Amino acid sequence: MIARNDRLSGFRARLTGAGLVVLVSASASLSTPRSVVGAQAAQGAPDGMALYGAGCASCHGSDGRGASADRIAFDDPLPDLTDCSFASREPDADWIIVSKAGGPIRGFSDVMPAFGEAFDDDQLQAIMDHIRTFCTDRAWPRGELNLPRPLFTEKAYPEDEWVWTTSMNAEGPGAIVNELLYEKRFGSRNQVEIALPFGFAEDSSTPASSDGGPASDWGVGLGDIEIGYKRALLHNLRTIFSFGTELKLPTGDSERGIGSAEFQIEPFLALGQILPGDAFVHLQAGGGLLARGHRESHGTAEHDEDVREAFFHAVLGRTFTSGEFGRSWSPMVEVLASTHLADGAQPQWDLVPQMQVTLNTRQHVMLNVGVRVPLTDADVRSTQFLVYFLWDWFDGGLFDGW
Ligand code: HEC
User: Fold this and answer.
1) How far apart are alpha carbons 336 and 147 in whole angstroms?
2) Which of 48, 62, 326, 402 could form a disulfide with 126 if both were Cys (CB 3.0 to 4.6 A apart)?
3) Residue 22: what pLDDT?
4) What structural domains and CATH numbers belong to the chain?
5) Rounded to an integer, what distance in angstroms lies between the CA atom of residue 215 and that of residue 207?
6) CA-based diameter of the chain, in Å?
7) How far is the C-alpha of 388 from the C-alpha of 157, rounded, in Å?
8) Does 103 contact ligand 1 (Cβ within 6 A)?
9) If you ran DSSP here, which 8-state letter would residue 216 be given?
10) pLDDT in tens, the chain (402 residues)
11) 127 C-beta closer than 6 A to ligand 1
């Protein structure tokens, strides 16, 4: 875990008389924002740089790196707003909420003041536009594109997160499958991940018990471990488009139905699109290339490969916020289609209605609950209940910001 505070500990400041003077004069100029009025350009369009200078620079520094320790009167570390890895992640809307209502609204320090009285929304937006100039590398996709995560569809946005997903069959032989997923960004556009599935499955081949009731022989097994790579190829403020690939390793316990115990490569393309009214779409399309067991011929091992599967996922969702600064609720409907290509089989369709909700004040710990309903072959495929627990670890420790 790399918590924000560890990264920022270099900015620890000490309480000094001089710092207090700076702080007092900063807050005095806020309560009667004469400098703010002066920062308004002639036509009435707010001048973000001047407003930032008047309200924020005393602590955040005119260059965004944070005022030096001898100029501030508090101990709390200040973020480096020129660090793209930090500054690109949060959407404007979240930073405006923190600036309006103060640090504690998102579980941050109460040293970060509330400016809701001093600045209106247009002025705060102008300040955000100025803060956005501190990170000069446009390769970093903006936090606005970090849309709510569906249960199955891989997002286009690169992430730093832990996700624990549990799925359970509603009928048929019992199976509870868990997946622990770790995702880590590197550079401006890349992400690697590793997924460790493990499960408990009921062995349906066990003969019925002597009292005639259903036998229940549950076994524990490891699934197919997956490693993956993803890279954002294109992005603007509303759209992000990525390429990725996953490699499944044959570690699964196929006899218990947990994993297929075969090598599989799954290349895919993913798109995230912001729609008007806090609505959004995710699309993902890819193929499953299976490396079947190798044969010996002329003393060399040959892999018998073919494209076995093609899949398409589509998600439509919308985020609702309770109260102006509150919890986010994101209902989504996910459609999954997959087909085996080789044998001309019919495609299989599933519908997955679900709801993601942010759990804590900082909004970096979330839950998603959904149900996967088979639309085809419903007689042989079970309905599944799913839930995931997600921790965006870059935004703070698991127990921070509640
Ligand atoms: C009195 C000092 C002070 C002033 C003035 C101040 N800030 Fe802050 N700000 C802080 C501190 C301290 C933090 C770090 C809080 C934390 O990480 O717990 C912070 C954090 C932030 C963050 C980061 C939130 C995040 O997601 O990590 C933003 C954005 C921000 N301030 C914007 C502003 C803006 C805009 C202004 C001026 C309108 C401003 N601040 C004025 C002290 C200040």
Assistant:
1) 19
2) 48
3) 38
4) 4-131 (1.10.760), 143-395 (2.40.160.40)
5) 7
6) 90
7) 18
8) yes
9) -
10) 333 433 333 333 333 333 333 343 344 344 434 444 444 544 578 999 999 999 999 999 999 999 888 888 888 889 999 999 999 999 999 999 999 999 999 889 999 999 999 999 999 999 999 999 999 999 999 999 999 999 999 999 999 999 999 999 888 777 788 999 999 999 999 999 999 998 887 765 555 444 544 555 677 788 899 999 999 999 999 999 999 999 999 888 777 667 777 788 999 999 999 999 999 999 999 998 876 644 444 444 444 546 588 999 999 999 999 877 788 999 999 999 999 886 667 899 999 999 999 998 888 999 999 999 999 988 888 899 999 999 999 888 898 888
11) yes
Tokens matching residue 283: 């699309």
Contacts of 174 (CB under 8 A, 6+ apart): 168, 200, 201, 202, 216, 218
User: Is the Cβ atom of 5 under 6 angstroms away from ligand 1?
Assistant: no
Ligand 1 pocket check for 219: Cβ under 6 Å: no
Beta strands in 110-238 (DSSP E): 161-169, 175-186, 190-202, 218-222, 226-235
Q: Is 203 helix (H, G, I), strand (E, B) or coil?
A: coil
Question: Which protein residue has the closest C-alpha to ligand 1 atom 5?
Answer: 56
- 266/284 Cα distance (integer angstroms): 12
C-alpha 51 – ligand 1 centre gap (Å): 14
Report the residue among 6, 23, 36, 59 best suited for mutation to probe ligand 1: largest number of ligand atoms under 8 A from its CB. 59
Element (H, E) at 88: none
Rounded CA separation 378/176 (Å): 19
Copy the structure tokens of residue 50.
């001047």
| Nearest atom in ligand 1 to 94's CA | 26
